[in-house]
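SAMPLE LOG
Freezer: B-3
Tube label: C17
Construct: single chain, 276 aa
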Amino acid sequence: MRYENERPPVAVILAAGAGSRQSFLEDTSAKCLLSVGGSVILERLIRNCLSCGISQFVMVLGNRSDEIREYVDKTFRGIRVNYVINDRYRNTNTGYSLMLAAPAIGAAEFIKLDVDVMFDTKILRNLMDSDLANVLCIDRNIAPSDGKMKIIADDQMRVTDIGKSVDAKAAFGGSIGMEKISATTGPLLFAELARMVEDTGQAKDNYEAAYERLIHNGVPFHALDITGLNWTKIDTAGDIPAANAKFGSPVVTVSRGQQRAMDEAAAKPAPQTYDI
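STRUCTURE (predicted):
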């Protein structure tokens, strides 16, 4: 495994959104502090990172930032969390939030995580263990509608285009909101995000718009096919029942060794039984 002997990347968690599509929560709690599947959404995300050896975090906060920070500080002790505040969260988007995180990330390789994506640790392990520099997690079963972030990839899984306007018929699959960005590409990405923000009306673009620009300029991005692995996104109240069904038990921290043993046990054929 690549990260058993190397320093794990930084986890960058984007959690600044106003949660407008979760209006039933706006006056009571931050969306990421909702309990789904027996665990708080944000707790599950952080514990999954800890299971994969990540203990250094950058969190971009905006809406209900004090509430989220208090929860993290009380729940997790001994981990390094660098908080970045997006004061313009109501009229900006994820691209702006990621740009603000640049000084905190520095020259480190990082995993970018959307706070409202729930996922099995195997997805994160596969992402971290990829030898490729810049990797996007893609699910081929995402319905390729106009509102989805779609990607086109060649037969080597190199991404040739990404965006909501990508031709659905040509799309390989949809992005789930988890990426690995190399230490070399990071500064290029942040520079591109800064240029986007400087342009009129670009502060509301998603970070994928910067990925698209880099891809078109020849920076290599590859798709990691995670089709069939367990994940879901909490966009609206209607997503919660399905999330509860997929993640029916509280999250626990599982080491690589424990995960390997569970995978090996699951791969073994069931013992034969005989009627006597």
